[in-house]
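Milestone 3.1: sequence recovery, worked example.
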């Protein structure tokens, strides 16, 4: 049986490992830490087709959604297809939503009254209307990751935690304890780690590191339901899907004037509620090769300030704060796949859509392999 070795137990590593196993490969997964601690357990858990460009990328995201739902049923983790609500406060944002919705039956434009009636947590002050999209879905990243690891074991995937790969030979990898694992195909899904394996290839791929600040509220009172994943004006300038709307540049210009600090720190805000009643909130975008260990209190305040503009929460006490790091393409690619050697696939720079696009990418990688 052909043998695939996968490096990394984040969502990219797990989706490739599980897909390869389903296709009849013998699979070994090697993870540096005792459990996944990277971007895959630090994100919102939003599966976000609405952020993807129309065409193949959106198809990949919708394929990923189907796989997430299938896997949630098999591996037994929480998933909630609750949809997303993009709230418009500025007239330019309302114009963007109208342009975005025109020509597609997949989205519902709601006027102000309808929005507030269906989503009472939306802030009514200055609200013009909203766009509801049913596809978006939430998982709880740490528990989904843990359940996928158990499921991978059940499938017969050999998992080695606490096992950093330090070198790639022609047909085997070497780990820090001196073991060698032979492969016919190797997938490197090492997250934001750019320095150890194939650093020159990564450096040539025009990617940079991005740090994002995140928060989680205390559980909201029983009965409170956000009703959807909520975003607003700032987010419409963030994702590729809205790039082609004629009013997006006008909205961006206005936001840059009105919210210069949000622009400086790359703040746009997503609020996603999880099964335990908590809300995950974020984020900011800071670009550098290395980051100081401390996070910025003023950036958290910018996030909370923007949040208050579109959500009225019963309890905005913050229980946890953390940051995540991902690699992002400097030239706007939403996924960067490198082949430093013929039998080696390096998946990197999934930016802020890695949870959404992972399963579709894994499907493509494994289909391209000749066993
Ligand atoms: C704050 C934040 C919010 C986000 N929100 C969303 C969202 O809501 N929706 C969405 O679709 N995407 C989101 N993303 C993006 C998404 O989380 C990432 O694209 C995705 O998790 C990347 O997965 P990964 O497996 O490549 O990396 P990681 O999860 O970082 O996993 C890489 C793994 O490789 C291991 N590793 C590294 N080097 C070695 C080595 N030499 N040997 C062995 N193991 C090694 C690491 O220990 C780690 O466990 C967000 C990202 C962040 C940071």
């Amino acid at each position: 049986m052909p043998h695939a070795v996968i490096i990394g137990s984040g969502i990219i590593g797990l989706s490739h490992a599980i897909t390869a196993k389903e296709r009849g490969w013998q699979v070994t997964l090697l993870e540096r830490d005792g459990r996944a601690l990277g971007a895959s357990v630090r994100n919102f858990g939003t599966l976000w087709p609405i952020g993807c460009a129309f065409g193949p990328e959106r198809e990949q995201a919708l394929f990923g959604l189907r796989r997430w739902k299938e896997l949630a049923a098999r591996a037994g983790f929480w998933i909630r297809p609750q949809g997303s609500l993009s709230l418009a406060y500025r007239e330019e944002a309302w114009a963007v939503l109208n342009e975005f919705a025109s020509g597609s039956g997949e989205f519902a434009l709601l006027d102000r009254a309808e929005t507030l009636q269906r989503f009472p947590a939306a802030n009514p002050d200055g609200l013009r209307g909203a766009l509801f999209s049913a596809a978006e879905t939430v998982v709880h990243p740490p528990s989904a990751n843990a359940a996928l690891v158990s499921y991978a074991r059940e499938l017969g995937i050999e998992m080695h935690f606490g096992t950093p790969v330090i070198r790639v030979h022609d047909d085997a990898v070497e780990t820090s304890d001196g073991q060698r694992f032979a492969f016919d195909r190797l997938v490197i899904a090492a997250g934001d780690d750019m320095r150890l394996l194939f650093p020159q290839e990564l450096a040539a791929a025009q990617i940079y590191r991005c740090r994002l600040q995140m928060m989680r509220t205390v559980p909201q009172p029983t009965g409170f339901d956000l009703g959807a994943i909520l975003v607003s004006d700032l987010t419409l300038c963030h994702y590729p899907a809205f790039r082609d709307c004629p009013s997006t540049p006008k909205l961006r210009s206005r936001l840059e004037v009105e919210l210069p600090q949000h622009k400086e720190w790359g703040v746009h805000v997503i609020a996603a509620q999880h099964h335990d009643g908590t809300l995950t909130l974020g984020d900011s975008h800071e670009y550098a090769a290395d980051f100081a260990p401390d996070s910025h209190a003023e950036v958290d305040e910018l996030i909370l300030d923007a949040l208050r503009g579109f959500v009225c929460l019963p309890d905005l006490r913050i229980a946890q704060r953390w940051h995540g790091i991902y690699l992002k393409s400097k030239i706007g690619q939403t996924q960067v796949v490198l082949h430093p050697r013929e039998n080696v696939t390096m998946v990197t720079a999934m930016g802020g859509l890695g949870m959404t696009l992972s399963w579709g990418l894994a499907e493509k990688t494994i289909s391209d392999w000749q066993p």
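The chain has a mean pLDDT of 96. The chain has two domains: 3-65+141-195+335-368, 89-134+207-329.
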